[in-house]
Amino acid sequence: MLTARRRVVATAVVLTGSLLMTSCGNSDSGSSDGKTLRLWHYEGPTSAMGIAWKEAIKEFEATHPGVKVKFEEKSFDQIQKTAPMVLNSSDAPDLMEYNKGNATAGLLSKQGLLTDLTQEATKRGWDKKLSPSVRTTSLYGSDGVMGSGKWFGVPNYAEYTLVYYNKDLFKRYGIAEPKTLAELTAAMDTFVAKGVTPLANGGAAYPAQQYLYQLALSKADRSWVNAYQQYKGRTDFHDAAWTYGAETFADWVKKGYFSKSSSGQNEEAAGVSFTSGKAPILFSGSWWYGRFKTDNKFDWGTFLWPDSKLTLGSGGNLWVVPQGSKNKDLAYDFIDITMSKKIQNLLGNSGGVPVAADASAITDPRSKTLIDDFNTLSKNDGLAFYPDWPVPGFYDVLVSGTQKLITGSEKPDGYLSDLQEAYDKGAPKQ
Asked: Pfam families annotated for this entry (predicted)?
């Protein structure tokens, strides 16, 4: 993410400092007896990945007699903020879920904190199971830029953003499913006129910046994305696409499509406002899908962002093996299990987007729609990654900037200038 995008965690978020305490305080955390696989991830138990990986743990222990998986659930923020420090210690886990992109996995690979998985990816056939667009975030060069070089991570799922909508609320107010941006805008105007804030949002986390990035993407093309994400050309934050994104976002705030209070809300608050039936629309990632299948008590549906060939998306977050892992072979075996047909099919039927499932094995209707839409995007080269990826620390810059747009303390032009300054400071010199 997100991302960097923050992953949905159903349980309460633990204070970031506890990550260091649990890591450095375990006397057995550095075990290298081949009997324990220390695993960290931040997927909620009702998410598709949480369900699939729980089953993978059972499968792993069944096929590795005498070996136990020591799973430690962390929050996205815990791992995001402290991973470099933890992985540079003697208490790194054996296997960890980590955010993909230049500013995260790319940065750690450049710092020598991640294991080169190239040989394992070839030997175990992971390279053959991942499509080129999904594989992009697995490979990093010596400069930490994604897309080519060595394998430093393996995603066993994919993800993309889409519009979730409450069919019951749309029906109550006589609104049809929008097929164009004009129809979506008209629908939001109707909700506002009825006293309903249409868009679930979280300005203190990734949702707000993803709305703005999507608006910019609707006016962009692949060369624009490549320049921004992979430095294949100059990025001008005052160009037509970025300007449209920032100005439209600010205009939507004025029109009441977003609530002013959303400036202080995180992604969890945004999700809850949708699952509670308060907000009729949420634009966010496929990672919510499994949870919504469980939590939504109303009729709901999805559609791709209208009038745009591009949307946010990529291969999912990565399984990475820290360079300090004491049980690397066990870690490789676990990754292999998550790539198996059994786990891939479970992930797909639980509301995830698998990368190596049997299409005929996906029987849930909503899941089939989710996967079909992803396949359409992937086939049409429509995945445009995430706005915070290009440079380290950009996530926080985007959060701060979009919060100011929501509160009105910053104008679009100033917001874009702030992004330009931070981007130019962190991006490689052309």
From this structure: SBP_bac_1
Q: Is 141 exposed, middle or buried (0-12, 13-18, 19+ CB in 10 A)?
A: middle
Between CA 197 and CA 255 the distance in angstroms is 10
Cα atoms found within 13 Å of the Cα of residue 350, Cβ hemisphere only: 23
How many DSSP H helices and E strands does the chain contain? 19, 11
pLDDT band at 269 (very low <50, low <70, confident <90, very high): very high
Q: What is the DSSP string of 152-173?
A: --B-SEEEEEEEEEEHHHHHHT
Q: Is 3 strand, coil or helix?
A: coil
Residues 7-25 have a mean pLDDT of 39
Q: Are strands 95-98 and 36-41 parallel, antiparallel or unpaired?
A: parallel
Residue 332 pLDDT level (bands cut at 50, 70, 90): very high
Q: Is the pLDDT of residue 14 over 80?
A: no
Q: How far is CA 320 from CA 162, 330, 399, in A?
A: 27, 13, 26
Cβ contact 165:302 at 8 Å: yes
